[in-house]
Specification:
It comes from Amycolatopsis albidoflavus. This protein has about 220 residues and is mainly α. The chain is built from 9 helices and 7 strands. The protein is elongated.
Length: about 220
């Protein structure tokens, strides 16, 4: 029994170290990453590759088949056939409700700061989302979560970066605003917007899902 205090201190030390390591892992998952971290698709043949290199340079409005054909110097019918093949492969998509038909790179490869900002703008007052939620809403997986963090941390026009939290609802320990204020200020901003915190974590009931963000992005105008 005389060894119990030593054992207790040892277990507490190990526990603290594990908690610190877990926090560092969470932070790393939200640490911004360059766009190069996201692998772009490769096409079969010269024409597919030309299109796959062209479309990521356009905005979400996409390009008309004729414009794509003119840019890559290819016949319009053949360009359309190539686009259809790329669509079947899940590499490009038609822009919904666009007339005439317009094409853009598939959602999972649209990982620019502008896209992250637009989807993040769908988070309303009294709501929060994680970096991963934005990535899933944009491209269908969490591979761009770090890129979302980069955009939120470095782009002065990013909409309400305080509304993006870690997956467990805690504020990223590295969070800071343009005036150097840290995580405590982020939590204060959210509390003023109606977010409730318990033990440093935002209420899960106020988390907006990636599915709802994606739906808003398709059906609603971009907030001013």
């Amino acid at each position: 029994m005389e060894n119990i205090p030593a054992l207790t201190n040892f277990l507490r030390t190990v526990s603290d170290a594990c908690l610190t390591f877990a926090s560092e892992l969470e932070t790393a998952s939200a640490t911004p990453a360059p766009a190069e971290d996201i692998e772009l698709p490769r096409g079969r043949g010269q024409r597919q590759q030309q299109i796959l290199e062209l479309l990521p340079t356009t905005d979400d409005a996409g390009m008309k088949t004729a414009d794509i054909a003119a840019t890559i110097e290819y016949e319009v019918p053949n360009t359309h056939s190539t686009l259809q093949a790329l669509e079947r492969a899940g590499l490009v998509e038609m822009v919904p409700r666009a007339t005439p038909q317009r094409w853009r790179i598939a959602a999972r490869y649209r990982t620019t700061s502008a896209v992250f900002k637009r989807v993040s703008s769908r988070i309303r007052k009294g709501e929060w989302a994680s970096y991963g939620d934005i990535s899933i809403a944009v491209r269908g997986d969490t591979a761009a979560a770090r890129g979302v963090g980069r955009a939120a941390a470095t782009d002065p026009e990013f909409p309400h970066p305080e509304r993006l939290l870690m997956d467990d609802g805690s504020v990223n320990p590295r969070w800071h605003d343009s005036e150097g204020r840290g995580p405590e200020h982020c939590q204060l901003l959210l509390e003023k917007q109606g977010i409730k915190f318990t033990d440093g974590r935002a209420s899960s009931a106020q988390r907006v899902s990636w599915a709802l963000l994606a739906e808003r992005d398709k059906t609603e105008a971009v907030p001013e």
